[in-house]
Design a protein that fits this description.
The complex is a heterodimer of chains A (about 350) and B (about 140).
Chain A lengths: L21 H5 L5 E6 L2 E7 L2 H7 L18 E9 L16 E4 L3 E5 L6 E6 L4 E6 L7 H5 L3 H8 L4 E5 L1 E7 L2 E8 L6 H10 L3 E4 L2 E5 L5 E3 L4 E5 L13 E7 L2 E7 L9 E9 L8 E3 L3 H15 L4 H14 L3 E5 L4 H12 L1
Parallel strand pairs in A: 2-3, 3-7, 10-17, 17-19
Antiparallel strand pairs in A: 1-2, 4-5, 5-6, 6-7, 8-12, 9-10, 9-11, 12-13, 13-17, 14-16, 15-16, 18-19
Helix pairs in contact in A: 6-7
Chain B lengths: L8 E3 L4 E5 L4 E5 L4 E6 L2 H9 L4 H7 L4 H16 L3 E3 L20 E5 L1 H8 L3 E2 L17
Antiparallel strand pairs in B: 1-5, 2-3, 3-4, 4-6
The chains are: A alpha+beta (about 350), B alpha+beta (about 140).
Organism (chain A): Humitalea rosea
Protein name (chain A): Hpr(Ser) kinase/phosphatase
Protein name (chain B): Coenzyme PQQ synthesis protein D (PqqD)
């Protein structure tokens, strides 16, 4: 991580700065992880065991000590730090408004009143910093899907994008094919994707997944977590041992699940794109959908959760919508096995 | 307005992006977070308008029926009201004859504004030319 070096670009933000790296090195490999997320090989440095404990199991990919056999992979360094000294880029008067700087070289997002969190990405050096004032102040949604704006910024120069949606994959022919489930909150993304996981489907995520948007559309996992509302608990009692904690968000209790080792976590080529909507169908129902509605379903929460570079990111989604397989509106009905059977038939 | 029928337009800035999927055109206004679905003959009309052809020229390409001109003018009014088009510096160099490959079908414009609602809940303040609000005590790279 570059620290305080003169910035030849003369950018307004100054060089990306992290806490001094030397103490980090002395703490050994336990605080370092190397993960593969779609096209990214992420070298993670946690500045403390507490931070590693908070975030270490949330990311969905296999840990590896060797170079993984992934073509076109980009190496990125991400330092995760907390407390003092605060990076110079933390605005005066913690809290306040969210702040965003997104240009060709730098991505910086201060979460303001939502959390004392700074996300910074130096694209040229392929280095990033996640800093939080106090690890105890990290909100539950951030613990469940950490570093999302940073990862999105890292993906900007690739055909991939992190999107708000769930995805699961089943065997189809010689391999697997995935279905992406877009939809607003409470549409049923989590319950349907966990129902798939419980019955042997490959699980790529219940909330945010990686999506390849070029002429080889595909889905890859981003997080090995899921967030169950109270009303879903009875249907997924078998997952209770995976519960890390119970959080509360906007008056709703959430059971935060860590799914590492709880089933098949992975991605696959994208076979279908569905807009999930519960309209009271008695049985699974597939219907036509406009691409505008799908774009809205994919882009809305994505744009809010990962602000910046909206034109390029929406352009990726538009390209995907022009090249993917079946696109439908899907009401899964009340019965998970029937819904999964309908999806399996769609992907066959 | 009638004078708009003879005016050349172009997309109103880099925040307006669009893609034609054949059976539907999607236009997104990234500045407001509003998406639009264009159906019927609206995709062909949008494409021609975005190239700088006038509404009257496009109506002529579709056969010149006064009802068609009124319909195109109505769509143009909607697109203008949504701030998707702005007057262009110069009209399209070629006549609009080729912009109407199929029979005229009443143009449709559907609006999707959920994202706008989300953005308005908590607007993000993009850093202006004034720069990132560095904490005064840390200026100079003490962090």
């Amino acid at each position: 991580m570059a620290t305080g070096a003169p910035d030849p670009g003369g950018r307004r933000l100054g060089a990306v700065q992290a806490p001094p790296p030397a103490p980090l090195a002395k703490q050994g490999a336990a605080l370092r992880r190397c993960l593969v997320l779609g096209p990214l090989r992420l070298h993670l440095d946690f500045a403390s065991p507490a931070l590693a404990a908070i975030f270490g199991d949330a990311l969905a990919v296999q840990q590896t000590d060797a170079d993984p056999p992934v073509a076109d992979v980009q190496d990125w360094q991400l330092t995760v730090a907390a407390g003092t000294p605060a990076p110079a880029q933390v605005p005066a008067g913690a809290g306040g408004e969210m702040r965003l700087l997104a240009d060709a070289d730098t991505y910086a997002l201060w979460m303001g009143r939502h959390a004392p969190v700074l996300h910074m990405v130096d694209r040229r050096r392929r280095q990033a910093l996640y800093w939080v004032a106090d690890p105890a102040a990290v909100p539950a949604w951030e613990r469940s899907r950490p570093f999302l704006p940073i990862l999105q910024a890292m993906l900007d120069e690739t055909p991939w994008i992190a999107v708000h949606g769930a995805a699961i994959a089943c065997r189809a022919g010689a391999g697997h094919r995935a279905v992406l489930l877009a939809g607003a909150g409470h549409a049923g993304k989590t319950s349907l994707s966990l129902a798939g996981l419980a019955t042997g489907w490959r699980f790529a995520g219940d909330d945010f997944v990686l999506l390849r948007t070029d002429d080889r559309p595909a889905v890859a996992p981003l997080y090995a977590t899921a967030r169950l509302r109270d009303d879903m608990l009875a249907q997924f009692a078998a997952l209770l041992p995976a519960r890390r904690e119970i959080s509360e968000e906007q008056g709703e209790r959430r059971h935060e699940l860590s799914l590492a080792g709880r089933g098949s976590i992975g991605g696959a080529p994208l076979g279908a794109l569905l807009l999930l909507e519960r309209r009271g169908a008695a049985a699974p129902l597939l219907a036509p959908v406009t691409r505008s509605a799908l774009l809205q379903g994919l882009a809305a929460t994505t744009a809010v959760a990962t602000p910046g570079h909206a034109a390029a990111r929406t352009g990726k989604l538009l390209r995907l919508l022009g090249g993917t397989g079946p696109a439908r509106r899907f009401d899964p009905g009340p019965d998970f096995p029937a819904a999964l059977s309908a999806l399996r038939a769609l992907l066959a | 307005m009638d004078q708009d029928l003879d005016t050349a337009f172009c997309p109103a800035g880099t925040g307006i992006i669009f893609r034609d999927f054949g059976d539907e055109m999607v236009v997104a206004n990234l500045d407001t977070g509003i998406f639009f679905s264009l159906g019927g003959s609206a995709p062909a009309i949008w494409a021609a308008l975005a190239e700088g052809h006038s509404a009257r020229g496009i109506a002529t390409a579709f056969g010149g029926d006064p009802g068609i001109l009124a319909s195109i003018g109505g769509l143009l009014g909607q697109l203008r009201a949504e701030a998707l088009l702005t007057p262009a510096a110069s009209p399209a160099p070629a006549p609009a004859a080729g912009v109407a490959p199929w029979a005229f079908v009443t143009p449709l414009l559907e609006r999707f504004d959920d994202l706008q609602g989300l953005l308005l809940v908590d607007p993000i303040h993009e850093v202006s030319e004034a720069g990132w609000p560095l904490a005064p005590q840390t200026l100079g790279g003490a962090g």
